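Predict structure. Chain length: 86.
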Amino acid sequence: MLDSVAVERAEKSIGELMNSRSKAKDKANAEADLWRISERRHREKRRQENRAAWYSHHEHMRDLHQGLADEHRIKAEALLECAASS
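Prediction complete.
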């Protein structure tokens, strides 16, 4: 014969175990969600930083090439003036 008190204790113990595992799973899911959000923010910040760095690089290259173009234009004009005066 089954002892009704022992059965109730066993059922209660099983219920507590299930609740404990459910809470642990919920906590793990919440932590994983927070990690994903944090990771997404980090990736977006890196993308913005990289975008700004590339923008700066291209601005620098534009200025550099513009300076070279101006230098060569001045040299070409000087050669034309020299040829015209000869």
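Summary: The mean pLDDT is 94.
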